[in-house]
Amino acid sequence: MWVDSLDRNARKIGIPRTIASLDSVLATLGKKDIQDSIVYYKFMKVLSHRDTTMRDDALAYTDSLLGLFKSARVREENAADYSKALLLKGDDLLKQKEYYLAYRNYYNGKAFLTSLGEICECARYSSRIANISFKEENYDQAIEYWEQELKELGECKGTDFQLQFIEKQGSMRNIGIAFLRLNEPDKALVYFRQASRFIDQMAARFPREQNFIRFARIVIVRNEAEAFALKGNNALAEKLIRKCLEHDPGIEWSVDVEKESRQLLTQIYIDQKAYAKAQEQLDTLRHLPGAEGDVYQTLQASVFHGQGEYQAASQLLMAHLDTEKKQALERRVESKSHVGQLLQQIQREHEQELTAEKDARESLVLKFAILISLALSVIVYLIWRNARKNIANLRAVTKLNDEITQSNIALQDTVNALEQAEIEKEEVLKIVAHDLRNPIAAMVSGSDMLFWEQVPSDEQTMIVDAIQQSGRLAFGLIGQILQSSPDREKISKNKEDLAEIVRSCIDMLTCKGKEKKQTIYYDYEEAMVLVDREKIWRVFSNLLSNAVKFSPMGSTIQVSLRKHADTMLLSIRDSGIGIPEDLKGQIFLPSNNARRIGTAGEESFGIGLSICKQIVEAHEGKIWFESVDGAGTTFFVELPVGLGETALVPAI
């Protein structure tokens, strides 16, 4: 209520004093909740629009307002305010002629409200699209969207003056104006009269807004006068125009109505060849702010021509034609946004996104189902195999009681073999599990970047949350089964751009680094090296991931790639927790004795470096490190530029 009162007085006391008063009162609130911030940024957005010197500030206030709705819970609890923020962002983008992004914002806002059943607020979006269509002279489409707005407003309940009065009567009047542009004055009059009746019915419900209501009546009368003038009923049109000119001088926007009314009255007098009366109106019109424009020149030329002053009329007409030519060139340069086509494209893209997300969910469910089925099959097989062996052993004990000692030895050997097979199977599982860690980490981190520069819908947010939850569950399963054991596979080397491989690792981990506000600097020299791209990428990714994991918040990581004679040397230096003296000898051992927790609580299993060492050595390279406990670590990887074609390396 206080902000509404300040808004009413803002034009009287000026924008700077209004902002000072707003900041002063906000400072007295102490701890502000999110609703206080929403009200503040919305009102500052309104004030910055009224002051042309604050144009850049207006864009910043929109971004600040949108920044309040980062979580799905906040968006749902403040659905109307969030939709208005999207609406304002769309308006900003539209002014910057970013038509696709603007309409995408409008569409996302409307889709969000529709998903929550907030049909009432959707009317604001229909109104925006109608206004854009009207400016593009697509009047039939504008009428369609204003009709849609009226339908949505019809479902609104409550006493919101903006929605219940301004938007409704404005939609009716706008439809009438669109019919005037289509040269259908009779249809226009139907909507003007409908708007007039609506104003009479609703006036008593808003006693504090009587100034605006009186102004709305005057505007409707002026629109009706224009319709009657288009029908050729100049007498009635003149009567209505004179009624407009008797308006209450206390109404703030009446000067604009007076200017438009006198222009229309001048045209009526010109049509009646009452040039003296027309000139009288033009003389009055000339003293109004912003009156001497293109329309004024045309009317004055018509009066001069009617009075026989052909030279003066010709000069004004030439000036008008020159202005019209320039405006035509400007309109030709500016391409229209074709709002209808863009909205259809955005809707198709939205449907495709929903289909893709549905397919991804189904694919994920199918993969998990297959994994579970395979696991169950293995378990059933093992149970069946063990059962058969137990039965066979029982029969052998029964029949060969005299050879029980030998049988026990055989059974012990069998148990030992089973245990060894189980150990080998578990080791394979650990290696596969470790291999899955980095892709899953990339999936979790990358999901945060899907909507880095735009706000996702509620369903999109749910899908992203599901991806991240699946990633965390997968990490939990990996943690339960992870152990160290090498398995060997062949690698094939090809000439690869080593600098590009390092860059791809950095790109994958940049998002993870941003979560800890870390900065990765990369200095390199280009060189083509014979390597197995996938395996050597895993080495670099593991080393860089460790640097991010064990570095503190806000730190920097230096990555350097330099050519030395016949070798390439990669160094990754961090300013993290370092490696204690008692662990330095265990870093490259295939055990988890050297594992430690990351600076943000990240879990470590201590086997990645041992596998990295085996991969590098399989490439005839070297890997080592330099570290001071608590002061950071630098890992070095040296690879020869020329190698053979194949080698053996552990799979990780």
Automatic annotation (TrEMBL):
Catalytic activity reported: ATP + protein L-histidine = ADP + protein N-phospho-L-histidine
Gene3D superfamilies given in the database record: 1.10.287.130, Histidine kinase-like ATPase, C-terminal domain (3.30.565.10), Tetratricopeptide repeat domain (1.25.40.10)
Superkingdom of source: Bacteria
Enzyme kind, highest EC tier: transferase
Enzyme Commission numbers on file: 2.7.13.3
Keyword Transferase appears in the UniProt entry: yes
Keywords: Coiled coil, Kinase, Phosphoprotein, Transferase
Secreted among keywords: no
Pfam families with a match to the protein in the record: HATPase_c, HisKA
Coiled-coil features, chain-numbered ranges: 401-431
Residues in Histidine kinase domain copies: 431-643
CDD domains the record matches: HisKA (cd00082)
Family matches, as InterPro entries: HATPase_C_sf, HATPase_dom, His_kinase_dom, HisK_dim/P_dom, HisK_dim/P_sf, Sig_transdc_His_kin-like_C, TPR-like_helical_dom_sf, TPR_rpt
Full protein name: histidine kinase
